[in-house]
Amino acid sequence: MWEYSDKVKEYFFNPKNVGVIEDANGVGEVGAIACGDALKLMIQVDPDTDRITSARFQTFGCGSAIASSSALTEIIVGKTVDEALKITNQDIADFLGGLPPEKMHCSVMGYEALRAAVANYRGETWEDDHEEGALLCKCFGVDEGMLERAVRNNNLTSMEQVAQYTKATASCSTCAETVEEALERINAAMVSEGVLDARDAFVAGALPPTRRAARKTSPLVELSTPTAPARLTTVQRIRAVEEVLTELRPVLQGDGGDCELVDVDGNKVMVRLSGACVNCQLASVTVQGIQQRLAERLGEPVRVIPVPAGH
Amino acid sequence: MKPVYLDNNATTRVDPRVVDAMLPYFTEQFGNASSIHAFGADVGTAIRHARRQLQALLGTEFDHEIVYTGCGTEADNMALLSALETQAGRNEIVTSAVEHPAILALCAWLEKARGVKVHYIGVDSRGRLDMDAYRKALGPRTAIASIMWANNETGNLFDVETLAELAHEAGALFHTDAVQAVGKVPMDLKTSEIDMLSLSGHKFHAPKGIGALYVRRGVRLRPMIRGGHQERGRRAGTENAPSIIGLGVAAELARTHLDEENTRVRALRDRLESGLLQRISHAMVTGDPERRLPNTSNIAFEYIEGEGILLLLNKAGIAASSGSACTSGSLEPSHVLRAMKVPYTAAHGAIRFSLSRENTPEDVEHVLEVMPGIVETLRGMSPFWDGASATRSAFTPSYA
Ligand SMILES: Cc1ncc(COP(=O)(O)O)c(C=O)c1O
Ligand code: FES
Questions:
Q1: Are residues B202 and B304 in the same domain?
Q2: What are the boundaries of each domain within chain A?
Q3: Are the beta carbons of A66 and B303 separated by less than 8 Å?
Q4: Which cofactor does it need (chain B) (predicted)?
């Protein structure tokens, strides 16, 4: 069975905010029973302040789908609608102390439901069925908009990740080619915007780089060369990194782990994971989470490198 | 509360008598059966005895009809690969859509890598094989037909004897994956048309990592693993003596418990199944109630997802399994339930309970006690479950 974090188990066995809000003024429904998971999110928003005063959910799905839904309701209550919309699926996963990669789509479902509920509150006709660009995967109802958000929010660069985060291609896989093309297009756009290294971008049919090639042209070397000038001074950057880590620390400590800043070198941020984080299967998810948070704060791509203890 | 293990189709507990029989062959009689000295000779004798024990369970006549393998999967692979080599001019396989991955993944690879044509015969909503399609698929190009004796998810039994006869009419070999059937169904292979049969020890209280392929006398077998002369050169590699000896004892125990399997264990399964259906609405048995293993019950609970059920069962000390997507990591419900076209509202909530002779009436009562609450909790969270009668009356479990 999956290695679920204690937080996921807690939110599955004792989910908070299950049920219906009769007079909800924002309702978002995503997924379908055929797909194996579905979520109905109901929110009550104070129209004067735009603040979400309560949130409830009904979920059909596995343990992590129920936990993600519950976590989402906890995260958004008290936030304004605009604040809530800044939440990404990664925040949901982080809140839960990480999710197994195969289960990331549960957090994406929460994120999509929130967008749908807010659109409903605002009177927009946001529909699950593909207002935004073509429907790519029929089996799981993934359209271009949803794919692009999942790819950008989570820096997805492989078809395997796309399946883990959105389920697209995981059933009949007739959509494989279209989804490949879309992923290639989105990654290419990210590269030109400078948020993704060209070498990481997905190219349909390309072989993975050999180890030697990867070593010779490490993206890190390039990122720290003058062609990508850093906007912050080193001291500013270190300070910002420390701040982010301080924010994240309670989450990690909740799982019996910790994270410590070792060094900052250009866009490389060396951290040392300790305690439960070290051997945790989710270490890579944790690192990814930290990396994303840092990138947001610094406004530039960074690479978080876990260094072994004792270095 | 002692833990309740109802996942015996996944694997069984090794019987302590099996362990006792094996132990000396690790430390005292550790010799290589091929050696000339006493260390080896004693092991050779013990292996011969173990082979006879297994033969008795299968009802085979000749000792060289049994080839030991590393697992059930290996036996399945060996059967199909050998048939493609020995059946000159024949390059097609007929199998079913509900086989174990040990067959299906191999077939998918054979299609891709070797250009073999594979016919996947479908099943009806109760999981019964489409006999017309089976007959039609067999032909002068068929090297081998391979249909499982019992399905691991639903417990459905297939009429392997008739299937073997039909295959022979087309000049094809017939293999059956009997991994789930051995020890639960009486067998008398010396009167059977079956050419090859796979079994796996860990499904009937022997250790994991030991299996066997039965190959009817006269049927040619090409080795998959070449090397030494063990198993008459048909499966090289020093014999796994402790496991072979354990498998022998397990076979003997299975033979003495075979009646119990079909009486006491069956009664427990029936009590569990009818008890659950009585207590829980919108639940249906998947599979063919008339032709099933005595130990297996696969029940689909509508409007909820299997993983949640398993997590809550586990919390109550009960081990079962599910064909649901979420537990397997495949993102898709089981290929067996899909082949049976079990409605999506139910397929995601299918739970398999599989018993063994080690289960007790208390085990069953415990499940009957906790299961209704679990289903209610999860349905309470489900957006598709409106306790109101609208949904309830719209759905009638049916096998049609
Ligand atoms: C029907 C069937 N065939 C083959 C196998 C594989 O057996 P083994 O685990 O010994 O390789 C299994 C067990 O999971 C099975 O249920
Ligand atoms: S259309 Fe995408 S998996 Fe079927």
A1: no
A2: 6-121, 135-192, 215-306
A3: no
A4: pyridoxal 5'-phosphate
Determine the residue among A29, A60, A104 to mutate to test chain B binding: the one whose Cβ has the most chain B Cβ atoms within 10 Å: A60
SS3 A271: strand
Number of independent structural domains in chain B:
2
Task: Give nearest CA residue, ligand 1 atom 14.
Answer: B10
Q: Is any atom of ligand 2 closer than 6 Å to the C-beta of A173?
A: yes
Check A36 against B383: CB less than 8 A apart. Answer: no
For residue B393, being part of any structural domain is answered with no
Q: What is the pTM of this model?
A: 0.77
Q: Which ligand 2 atom sits closest to the C-alpha of A142? A: 2
CA atoms within 13 A on the CB side of B335: 15
Asked if residue A168 has its Cβ within 6 Å of ligand 2, the reply is yes
Q: Is the distance from the beta carbon of residue A163 to the nearest atom of ligand 2 less than 6 Å?
A: no
CA distance B157 to B319: 24
Least confident span in A269-283, A294-308, B204-218: A269-283
Last residue of one domain, picked from the residues B213, B235, B254: B254
Q: What is the C-alpha to C-alpha distance for residues A277 and A274, in angstroms, rounded to an integer?
A: 6
Average pLDDT score over chain A: 81
Third-level CATH fold of A215-306: GMP Synthetase; Chain A, domain 3 (3.30.300)
Give A77-93 pLDDT, tens digit per residue: 999 999 999 998 899 99
- ipTM (interface pTM): 0.81
Domain's final residue, options B228, B254, B280: B254
Task: Over range B32-47, report the average pLDDT.
Answer: 88
Distance B193 CA to ligand 2 centre (A): 42
Tell me the C-alpha distance between B248 and A146, whole Å: 57
At the second CATH level, the architecture of A6-121 is Alpha-Beta Complex (3.90)
B24 class by beta-carbon count within 10 Å (0-12 exposed, 13-18 middle, 19+ buried): middle
- Do the strands A26-32 and A37-46 form a parallel or antiparallel pair, or are they unpaired? antiparallel
**A13: which chain B residues are within 8 Å (Cβ-Cβ)?**
311-312, 315
Chain A with chain B: Cβ pairs closer than 8 A: 78
Q: Are B239 and B286 part of one and the same domain?
A: no
Residue A189, pLDDT score: 93
**Torsion angle of alpha carbons B142, B336, B124, B146, nearest 10°?**
20
| Residue A11 C-alpha, separation from nearest chain B C-alpha, in angstroms | 12
Residues of A within 8 A of B388 (CB-CB) are none
Is A62 assigned a ligand-binding role in the annotation? Answer: yes
Mutate to test the interface with A, among B7, B303, B304, B307 (most CBs of A within 10 A): B307
- Do B249 and B276 have their domain in common? no
Summarised one tens digit per residue, pLDDT across range A195-208 is 999 888 998 876 65
**Segment A98-113, tens digit of pLDDT:** 998 888 888 889 999 9
Q: How far apart are CA B320 and CA B364, in angstroms?
A: 12
The partner residues of A263 in beta bridges, in order of sequence, read A270
Q: Which CATH superfamily is domain A135-192 in?
A: BFD-like [2Fe-2S]-binding domain (1.10.10.1100)
Terminus-to-terminus CA distance in chain A, angstroms? 34
**And the tokens for A161?**
């990740």
CA dihedral B328, B332, B334, B340 (to 10 degrees): 170
Does the beta-carbon distance from A1 to B310 stay under 8 Å? Answer: yes
DSSP string, B147-187: --SB-TTT-BB--HHHHHHHHHHTT-EEEEE-TTTBTTB--
Q: Over 90: is that where the pLDDT of B23 sits?
A: yes
Q: B159 with B278, same domain?
A: no
**Structural domain for B270, as ranges:** 4-9+258-381
The residue to mutate among A147, A159, A167, A169, having the most atoms of ligand 2 within 8 angstroms of its beta carbon, is A169
Task: Please answer yes or no on whether A37 and B305 come within 8 Å at the CB atom.
Answer: yes
Residue A274's DSSP bridge partners are A258
Three-class secondary structure of residue A104 per DSSP: helix
